[in-house]
Design brief:
Layout: H1 19-24, H2 29-35, H3 39-49, H4 61-70, E1 77-82, H5 91-98, H6 100-114, E2 118-123, H7 130-143, E3 159-164, H8 174-181, E4 205-209, H9 210-214, H10 216-222, H11 224-228, E5 238-245, E6 251-256, H12 261-268, E7 278-283, E8 290-292, H13 302-307, E9 316-321, H14 326-340, H15 346-363, H16 369-385, H17 389-393, H18 396-404, H19 406-410
Parallel strand pairs: 1-2, 1-4, 2-3, 5-9
Antiparallel strand pairs: 5-6, 7-8, 7-9
Helix pairs in contact: 2-6, 2-10, 3-4, 14-15, 15-16, 16-18
Bound molecules: flavin mononucleotide (FMN) and iron/sulfur cluster.
Iron/sulfur cluster is lined by residues 170, 188, 341-345, 348-349, 386-388, 390-391.
């Protein structure tokens, strides 16, 4: 299967230490064009593209830009979420290491449209080697006049700083990220107000993922309809997928939205190595649903995944073969969430630990059928009552495996079905 590279178009195509090479590929011509355009016309093109946020929640990018552009406030900010703490996601680091200038260009266009003069890239703490790549690219862009005062001789001035992440998964949540930039402990805020009206230092703030932002320059250059047309059928544009786990070919690949999950697993991933059978797939990251091998005929996009009982998230696809213990996978995931819960709210702080204890009890052969009901009840409470997306989504591996791998639980429970 041939990739359709739009977000990944320039990765590996130029020397990141040479801004002229980026310009030779057409780099910064999207920014030049944008600065000559009406801001609303750019928003219309982004809306027409159908681009949805690539960080996990899938909020339409154009609508978010519209809201921040309309928000009242003297200072506004653009923040790039480059925290990429999701264990099965590696796409943003590939973009930033291989094509930092597209991110700078996308942020500058965003700044022009929403009326911001300052941007921050919140870079995952565990990506220290990307820090100098971004810093050098920003310095070179500034020296070439693509950042700084009066860009391309216009009234628009914009600059970017890189901020190191806090080293915690929750810091990828947009309001925890803002707290962290402000030098506070990275804990989510109550919403509303949303960052679009009251974000960094209380000012209107646009927060977008790396992949969302690098997709902007080609949309400005070629138009929203051009980008939209790459999606299969009713789907819009493309998405980067991270393939990991028991696959022959793993890595980061970009395909049209609506590409079938089965095709991706077998035609791109090459299926499970060593002739093993596919047992299941976790889609959408650590807090995504785990589906079984019979459920993989799904067009990959946000709504189709949720209708099929899967999760789209940031496009993560973690495959496991028939040698793996499903409950061991769930235990690992719940260990991760117990560790990463920031502790600010009770359902998540206590709930993740309790889910972990119950999974361990069942794995040790000490579980009861009543424990399965407790797992379900507790998960429902966490999903309904947790303050942020971490606690709202972290029970998904438990809930989905209770549904799709129930016999794996029952076979470990005394008195259950064998
Ligand atoms: C626990 C948690 C972790 C998150 N981590 C990330 C992340 O690492 N990167 C990211 O872009 N979005 C992450 N998000 C989503 C952000 O809150 C936000 O929706 C996103 O940055 C918006 O950008 P987008 O609209 O371009 O997707 C996370 C959300 C939650 C609840
Ligand atoms: S849901 Fe979890 S991570 Fe989010 S605020 Fe509550 S305790 Fe913190």
């Amino acid at each position: 299967m041939q990739e359709t590279r739009i977000a990944l178009r320039f990765v590996g195509q130029y020397d990141t230490a040479c801004v002229n090479e980026y310009c030779a590929l057409g780099g910064y011509s999207g920014l030049r064009k944008a600065l000559a355009m009406d801001k609303n016309a750019i928003i219309q093109e982004v809306n027409a593209s159908g681009l949805r946020g690539c960080g996990g929640a899938g909020f339409p990018v154009g609508r978010k830009w519209e809201m921040v552009a309309a928000a009242e406030g003297g200072n506004k900010f653009v923040v790039c979420n480059a925290d990429e703490g999701e264990p099965a996601t590696n796409k943003d680091r590939v973009i930033m290491a291989g094509d930092p200038h597209s991110l700078i260009e996308g942020m500058a266009i965003a700044g022009y449209v929403v009326g911001a003069s300052k941007g921050y890239i919140y870079l995952r703490y565990e990506y220290p080697y990307i820090f100098p790549v971004l810093e050098n690219a920003i310095r070179d862009a500034r020296a070439a006049g693509f950042l700084g005062d009066h860009i391309f001789g216009s009234d628009f001035s914009f600059d970017i700083s890189v901020v190191s992440g806090g080293g915690a998964y929750v810091c990828g949540e947009e309001t925890a990220l803002l707290e962290s930039i402000e030098g506070k402990r990275g804990e989510p805020r109550f919403k509303p107000p949303y960052p679009g009206t009251s974000g960094l230092y209380g000012c209107p703030t646009l927060i977008n993922n790396v992949e969302s932002l690098v997709t902007i320059p080609p949309i400005v250059l070629n138009g929203g309809a051009w980008y939209e047309s790459f999606g299969l059928g009713e789907h819009h544009g493309t998405k980067i997928f991270t393939l990991s786990g028991n696959l022959v070919n793993r890595g980061v690949f970009e395909f049209p939205r609506g590409t079938n999950l089965r095709q991706l697993i077998y035609e791109v991933g090459g299926g499970c190595p060593g002739g093993r059978q596919l047992q299941g797939v976790q889609t959408g990251g650590a807090s995504g649903n785990i589906i079984n091998a019979n459920m993989i005929d799904i067009p990959l996009d946000i709504d189709d995944c949720s209708a099929a009982g899967a999760t789209f998230g940031a496009g993560d696809i973690m495959v496991f073969d028939d040698s793996k213990d499903v409950l061991e996978i769930v235990e690992n995931l719940m260990e991760f969430f117990s560790h990463e819960s920031c502790g600010k709210c009770t359902p998540c702080r206590e709930g993740n630990t309790r889910l972990l204890q119950l999974i361990r009890k069942i794995r040790n052969g000490e579980g009861t059928l009543a424990d399965l009901d407790t797992l379900e009840d507790l998960s429902e409470t966490m999903m309904d009552c947790s303050l942020c997306g971490l606690g709202q989504a972290s029970p998904s591996p438990v809930v989905s495996t209770l549904r799709n791998f129930r016999n794996d639980y029952l076979s470990k429970i005394e008195g259950g079905l064998k």
